[in-house]
C-alpha cells in the first residue's frame, strides 16, 4: 500500500517532453515527496511545541543549558549567553535573545538586570549587549542535575546537549506557552505557582483537584468554560476597572495578552466609532497599571464600564489548546493530565536521585570501611617486600580477605588501586574513632535515604512543600476568579446617531435629517415599526430604509423586553367590528412583516400607544349614529385589559362603525413591582432570582447604597449598576428610616455617633470626612438600633448603646455626638428595639400598593 502511494506521488510529478516523435519522461522526486513532511515534523518537534517531559521548547532548553554552562553566580551579558547558546541552537541570535527575554519576563527562571521590557506596556527589552542575566535560585534547584540528565550530540556534533532537562516541577503549566507549527498550534495558559504545588501534592495523595489560569497582568477571569484547557474550551479575561469619581474610571489591571498601548488604542477606536463616549485617556502606568478614562458630563460611569467590556480589549476571550510533545509525537491533553504526568515525572526523578545518592553513600561507606581495615590491620606493610605491581595488588588482596566479611559487595581491583593511592601522611594521622564516626554517619545517611525510598510519596510531598515555603511567598494569585454576567451590546452602546422617520413615504433611517426626529440610536440597534394597516416589522438601523407607508409608531426594539406594553384599538377588515388589545413584543424575526389584526383585508388601526412601563390610559370611543342606538360615546379604561400575546384578536369594542377614538386621561403602570436580587458572585443586580432578594421595586422606589469609605446614595435601581468592593449597605430605601453611624474622626482623633436622613436622591454624598485616618466602624439602618462597644483596653467593660436615645436625627453633614476618646476594638450590631410604624405611614403604604396593582 505504501509503495502504491509512493508510485502515485511520483506519477503526480511526472514531466513529459516531446522530442520529435519520441517522448521523454522525467520523474521529479526527492524534495517534493519528502521535504515538506520533514519540514513539518521539524517545526513541530524542534521549534514550536514544548515537550511534556520538561516543559521547554528546544530553544528554551538550550538557553537554560547555556546559562548553566556559564553560571558562576554572577551576571552575564545576554549577548554572551546568546553567543554561547548558538553552539547548541542552529538558528540566529535574534530568535535566541527574544526567547530569553520571554523566559525572563515570566519571573521564574532568570534573575534579570537592566531593561528587560515591560509586559504591561509592551515596551521591548534593551539590546542584548546592554542587559544581563543569571539563573535564579529556583532554576538552579529544580531544573538541573547532570547525574540524571540524558545527553545527545548537538547539531554539529561538537558538544553534548540534554535531550530533556530533569525538571522537578510543573514548569510548562507555571510558565504557559504558545507556538504555531505546520498544521497545528499550541496555547497553554500560565497557572499559579502555589496552586500547582498544592495540586501536585493532592495528586500524590490521591485527592481530586482543579486548576485555573493565573496571569502576571492580573485582571479578572471567568473560567466557567475552561474545559481543563482542552480544545473547545474558553476563558474570558477582563481588565479591573473601578470608578474613581463621577467623571473618571480607572483601569488598574489589564487582560492577559494585551498591553496598555493596545488597550488604549482599542478604547480610542471604540470612541471614534461611537460605541462609547470618552473625554480623555490618561496613561499613568509605571510599575503598576493606571489608565484614567475621563468621561464627558452626563455620561454614566456604570454604562461606560460595561461598554468598555463589550467593545474594547478590556475583555478578551482566550481559547486554550494544550498540545505537547510526548515520545516524539504531538498530543492534545488537558492541564490535569499534564500536571499528573509532570508530578509522576518529578516522583521518578526524585527516586532516581535518591538511588544515585544511595549508591554514592554505599560506595563511600565501602571505601571508608576498606581504608579502616587497610590501616588498622597494617596491611600496607605487606607490600614492602613486593617487587612487582602484581605482587602489591595480590598482597593487599590476601591481607584484606580475613576482614571483609561484613562488606556489602566484593572488593575489586579498582578498590585495591585506590588503597595504594592513600598518602603516608594520612596513614600516620589516622584516627580510629574519627573513622568509626564517619562510617556511622554514612550508615545514618544510608538509612535515611532508604527510608525516603520506602516512603517515596511522603518524601515528594515534603519536597513540594519545601519549594512552596522557599519560593512561594511572593507568588500569590494575581488574577481574580469571577463569574461574568453577559453584557448586551445594544444596552450599553453609546447612542451617537439620530433616528428619523418619513411617515407618509415609509422611510426610516439616520440620514433623513429633514424629516421627523424619533430618538437617539446606535448603528447596532434594531428599529420596530407599526403601520396604520396593523402590520409590524423590525429591521436594522440604516441610513435610509423603506419599511412601508402610513407609519403610526417607530422606536428602538429591545429583545426580551416584557415591560414595554403596546395598547391598540383597530377595525377588523373594511367594515368589520372594532377590537382592542394590549401586548408585548419580546422576540421576532428581523425584516419579517407581522399582522397584528385578525388578518382581514382593509383593517385599520384607530388608536395606538407604546408604554415603556406598562401604562394603561383611558380613551373615549365615539361611533357613527346608526338605527336606534342611543349611546354614541363612552369611555374605556385600558387597564381592565389583560396583557396577552401579539397574535390574539383582542376584546370586542363595538360591532358598529367607529367614528373616532381619542385619548382622555393618562393611567399608571399595570405591571407589578419588580423583584430585584443582588448576586454577590458577580456583584450585580438581577431579576432572575439569583442571590439575595432586595425587595419589590416600583418606578418610584430607590436603592440605598453605602460604602465603607463613607459614600451613600439613594438611586433608582438599574441592572447595569456596578458596586464597589467595600459595599456596606445595599437595601430598598425607606425615606423616613434614619441611618445610624459609629465612626472614628481622623482629624479630631475621637469616636462619634450620628444619625441622619437622605434628603436628596440620585446624588452621592459623604457621611464621614475624607481624612486619611477617618474610619467607619459600623452603619445600621434600623429604626431603633442598638450596638455593643468593645474597647481595646481590657480594663474597660463592653458598653451597650441605644443610638436613638444617644442622638437625635440631624443633617448628613453634621459631625455627630462624641462617643468616647478611648480606643475601640470593634462595634457589634445588636437586635434593634421594637418599633411600630405610625398609622399614617401604614395607610400610605397601603394606598401605594393598591395603586400599583
Please characterize this protein's 3D structure:
This protein is of the alpha+beta class and 853 residues long. Among the domains are: 2-26, no CATH class; 49-167, Topoisomerase II, domain 5 (Alpha-Beta Complex); 235-318, 2-Layer Sandwich (Gyrase A, domain 2), CATH 3.30.1360.40; 497-665, Neuraminidase; 678-840, Neuraminidase, CATH 2.120.10. Helix content is 28%, strand content 28%. The chain contains 19 helices and 49 strands. The strands form 15 sheets. Strands 27, 28, 30, 33 and 34 form a 5-stranded mixed sheet that branches. A 4-stranded mixed sheet has the order 16-11-10-19. Strand 8 (177-180) and strand 9 (185-188) form a beta hairpin. Helix 4 (78-85) packs across helix 5, helix 8 (193-204) packs antiparallel against helix 16 (456-471) and helix 11 packs antiparallel against helix 15 (432-454). The radius of gyration is 41 Å and the shape is elongated. It starts with a helix and ends with a helix. Mean pLDDT is 88; it is low at 1-20 and 841-853.
The CATH topology of the domain at 497-665 comes to: Neuraminidase
Strand content: 25-35%
CATH architect. name of the domain at 497-665: 6 Propeller
CATH superfamily of the domain at 497-665: DNA gyrase/topoisomerase IV, subunit A, C-terminal
Count every beta strand, where a strand is a DSSP E run of 2 or more residues.
Answer: 49
**Radius of gyration in whole Å, from Cα?**
41 Å
Mean pLDDT: 88
Assigned CATH class of the domain at 497-665: Mainly Beta
Largest sheet: 5 strands, mixed
How would you classify the helix and strand content by structural class? alpha+beta
Gap between N and C termini, in Å? 81 Å
Low-pLDDT stretches: 1-20, 841-853
State the helical fraction.
Answer: 25-40%
What would the principal axes of the Cα set say about the shape? elongated
